[in-house]
Structure formats: structure tokens, C-alpha cells
User: What shape does this take?
Amino acid sequence: DGGITQSPKYLFRKEGQNVTLSCEQNLNHDAMYWYRQDPGQGLRLIYYSQIVNDFQKGDIAEGYSVSREKKESFPLTVTSAQKNPTAFYLCASLSGGLANEKLFFGSGTQLSVL
Amino acid sequence: AQTVTQSQPEMSVQEAETVTLSCTYDTSESDYYLFWYKQPPSRQMILVIRQEAYKQQNATENRFSVNFQKAAKSFSLKISDSQLGDAAMYFCAYRSGVDSNYQLIWGAGTKLIIKP
Assistant: This one.
């Protein structure tokens, strides 16, 4: 089945630690996105990538980093500089042309601070 | 800057009844797209319906339809014949028609409860 796989489902971070969230897609999509979801708020864009080896900051990129070395993979690192990392993180990829664009989402990673 | 507002944090409806979720947005653009996404307990976001601003006809997808009022900047979602599987968070989202990076602006969501 084609889709987006995020791992792990739950992740715990100790203070001062960097952690990496995995996002893999087998949909052959060029564009991929990372969103943060906090309770009572809409999704906020962290980073996005429209093509391999290129990525752009979203609205809340501080304290996060990404890489896009392969089309299928778009890992997100939550660095120690992110002081409030507890949130639900969603990865997505984009299909279709201008008239038929559709975001496909993974099942998310819940990150908590120990 | 564009904003999306969902004023109903929670709604409940009896199974088989109809419910309407509200969404308003603010923009100075004339070309844009609007979306409703569903987030069930599995937490995976699923596209429910989309509306192009240049289309006057309201979008429909089976039991889901929208009431798009462009002048009022309103984009409500109507769910007919509500089913237990419709219980979820529903998010309204906006995308500029001139944005080539496909950046969505999201509302805070409405939790829909279905009463059996």
C-alpha cells in the first residue's frame, strides 16, 4: 500500500537532547511538509521541501532542522534549542497538479519531554 | 495576513441527523482554495472536501457539502445523515491561489461528537 510512514509513534526527549522523527513516503511525491499540532490550535508549518536537496522554513522553524537527501525521506530533528517541543508532529506529502492537489498525511509522532 | 477561524470548539449531533460546522476566513485575495480536513481518533488527517473560490457552485462529496459564501467569507461544512464514524476533529484550511509552495493556513478545529 502506498502511503506515508512516520516513526516512532511516541517519542520522549530528555532536556538538552536532540531527537529525530522519521517520515518516509512511497507515493513518489516531490513535495513534503512537517507540521506541528498543539491542543486547541490549528496545524503550524515547520519546514517544507519541494524537491530533493532543497527545503524551506515554515512559520515556526526555530529549534528544528530537516534534510532531504532522498525523495522518499524527510526526517525532522527537534534540537535542544526548541524549548517547548511537546506536541504532535505530522508529516505530509503533496500529490497532483494545480487543480487536483491533495495532501497525504502520516499517522503522526507524539513527542513528549521527560 | 490570512486567518481562518472556527468558532465552535465542540459540536454534537444525534446519529442520522444533520450538523453544520462553521468556518470564517479573512483574506484580501480573490484567488484561493478552501478545505475541510477530518482528523479521527487515529490522528491521521484526511481531506474531506475542497472548494475553489472562483467556483460559485458549492462542492459536495457524498454526505458532505459546503456552503461557500464568498462575500461573507464563510465556508461551512454540512454533514448529512451523521454516522458514528464521522466523530472526529474537523479542520478548515485556506490556501492562497498565488502560493506555489502550497502552504495551508489552518483553523483551530471543531470536535464533532456523534450521539448514538
User: Anything to note?
Assistant: Chain A has a mean pLDDT of 93.
